[in-house]
Amino acid sequence: MNERKGMDGMEGMKGMQGMQGVKGEHGATERAAGPDTLAHLARRGAERWPTAPALRWRGADGDRCHISYAEAGEAAEEIARGLMGLGLRPGDRVAIQSTLRPEWTFALLGAAASGLVLVSLLPTTVPEEIAHVLNDSGATAVICEDAAQLAKIRAAGPRLPRLRHIVLIDEPGRSGAGGEPAGSAGEPLRDDGTMTLDQLRRLGQTAVSGEELRRRQDAVRPDDVLVVLYTSGTTGPKKGCALSHGNYVSVLRAHPAPPRRPDGAATTGNGTVFVVTGPHTIALLMQLLTWWSGYTLAYFSGGSPERIPSEVREIRPTILPLVPLVLEKIHGAVLAGRTERERQRMVAAARTGLRVREMRARGAGVPDGLRRWFEEAEQGLFAEVRDHFGGAVRRVTVSGAPVSQDILAFFLGCGVPIVESYGMTETAAAVTSNTPDDYRLGTVGRPLPGIEVDIAPDGEVLVRGGNVFRGYWGYDEGEFGAVRDGWLHTGDLGAIDADGCLRLTGRKKELIQLSNGMAVTPHPLERELRASPLISHAVLYGEGKPHLVALLTLDERQARAWAAERGLPAALPDLVREPELLRALDEVVGRANAELQEYFRAKAFTVLERDLSVSEGELTISLKVARPVVHEHFRERYEALYD
Does the predicted TM-score (pTM) go above 0.85? Predict the structure, then answer.
């Protein structure tokens, strides 16, 4: 690897002495066969499913658009040849700064095909971070979305001595993807190497032959780095996780093979994967999974997370990966417009539904009266809840942060095939997962095939397998220390139960040390608080203090509906001062506290006048809370709770 230190010394797979781990064995269904690298992924999809829809997105006019695997494969390979035409050699880095859209996927597949390393710059990245990421990775080319992203790269320009090429996706008067480059090539925006994506594709058509691209593809090896994803850390410089072709292939092979016809041939139109998160860890894996298995990839049209529930119903996905925040938004949409009594009845019905489903799974008999009630609920209430997921979903996977077990139990009781899973950027987004047919509430399931999980003496979760990353870009093994003797030290705390399922209990770095010496994890209480439809986020605080306190934000849609029922102000800055709201939230906090031991309880809370924001850095692109940023932004609010 060019300019990369110490990656090759990380392949040792010696076991750790004295620990009882578990290795992934579940998933006895046929594992998807495929190549050892992803270099031929675009062409493979075009050859296997040429006319099947590969991508769906909303165009500038609001209409849904789609292109076939053949068209998408052609676009990806033209980008690959265009990047080669710019002189980029195997192992060179090309960055992309854009929202998740078809061109992002084309760039990913194009980089894989041409042996390049794709570096992801999140669309929220500011010029200072752009300079750090591009210089740290040594990127010589960058693909940016539009004029706004281009302006940020220009602002960082004086600090980017290695950057040689800038490619603009949305040129003036054009937006959205297509299987063919737009009409006129036009002139480059400037004479410093800046060009449009269409011009890059035209360069690929003429400057590099298909045979030359094939030779480049054939030369790619499993250990070659495919992407560098910079961690969404909140303090200090971000570090780039270097993930190889082999890392992702090991995860993709653990996924069940797509449906087959009786003659053994792969089907087309295997279903739709709907990605609602930003272009990072989970979204990258879902793009590769789509091409590996012949699904259709649908993109969220963007904007507020409040829009996601309606788009899920519109898209009717087959596979729906979610972070807890989005699941909570859908849960809120299910309960919206119902009285408190109606909500309680729905929760009770879902609880009974879950009991019946568990009885059936065990092969236990269901009493006639209960069976008739359940069958009626399946056709009525439960079907209505499932419609919020589009009515065609085969798997809803929740990962990325702790999730309310009450919300999971609610959807499971209604027959939504929803499961928790666990992974991180350093493991190509995958480690363990429940399955719709075999789940354990309160756990993140068993290791995927080929992956081992163990628990260190201090409770830290350890992972070993082909999915574990090569290391942090620019750090040797002794410096970064994340992988030792082949085991990734995840920083998560957990335990393995008697069934081999992993239960997560917190993060080592997020333990809050109280002044009495107790180290407590904030996740249990935060998870219980977010289960309330009124609450969007809950962030605890208390380092060096005698007890915990909480900052709460409101779910605007639910809070407005709640306020309208009671004749209270709808504007959040006014509503958060209403005594009736504060009493309601006090009851929520009291109920959540009652479920926990003394030191895990919050003794006071404050309510923010707005929700947390990605643009303010309070949420990461994957909608996780950036805890240190929240603590810093609202330190005075927290401290006032101790007065």
Answer: no
